[in-house]
Amino acid sequence: MERTSKSNPPFRSTALRNARPRQGSSGQHHREESPRQTESHSKQQIVSGLRPVIEALDSEVHIDRILIQNGLSGNLVSELKSKLRDKGVPFQYVPAEKLDRLTQSNHQGVVATISPIKYHSFQDILLSLQEQGRVPFIILLDQVTDVRNMGAIVRTIECAGADAVVVPEHGSARISEDAIKTSSGALLRVPVCREQNLKTVVRLAQQCGLQVVAATEKASQSYLTVDFTLPTLLLMGSEEKGISPELLKLCDVRASLPIRGEVQSLNVSVAAAVFMYEVLRQRQES
Known about the structure:
By secondary structure, the protein is α/β, with parallel strands linked by helices. The protein contains 9 helices and 11 strands. It has 2 domains: 41-114, CATH 3.30.1330.30; 118-285, SPOUT methyltransferase, trefoil knot domain (Alpha/beta knot).
């Protein structure tokens, strides 16, 4: 069976060297060298109050997200918002009642949740893989919001030896203690890139010579005909919506799994596992 793929240039990362790392990214991406976090670190922690949250932003703490009370204003609020924009930390406006449910302390209209993991920069991951002489295989999850699916996919990423997973800042399952448990601790070992714009991630991958493969039941091409020995970014979408149309348009290859039964789709974590182990099989045999 002849495998087909779009002709991509060799993996290169010259364009990445001047990229500015975002807040929360870590400089170490070789998984064997990454220290395992303890179970106590996986529990969600909260920082509340304007000044404590600002200080947390200036520290080495990895912030998951920040909630700001609707209509909050003042000099410190302006300073906080400026830092959030500079560091690329996601935030949202919420009613005061939601903040009250999160903490009984005097939150002053601001609550931050601390991430149980360190997030990595996609640019830095590519650069690190290039420096190690590895052929990249990275999974991008678009709109996968179920914690159990997220955990199961990352567990397979760890088992199959893929390099990293990319998730969006918004519209993705929260990486919480439950997600870490579901992944059997794999989320503490697999580099996770949380990015603002997935289209930018796809374009950057293509500029660096990665083929971008969309796993979609709408494709006529079998996954068995894709040359996964090439540097690859694999896109998986949610079971409800699939891969978003704007991302699908950017992909180099669209591939599907054979469906013989009446149910016309697989659980996303199952489909991801099939694709990942096909990548592993091809690379072991090459």
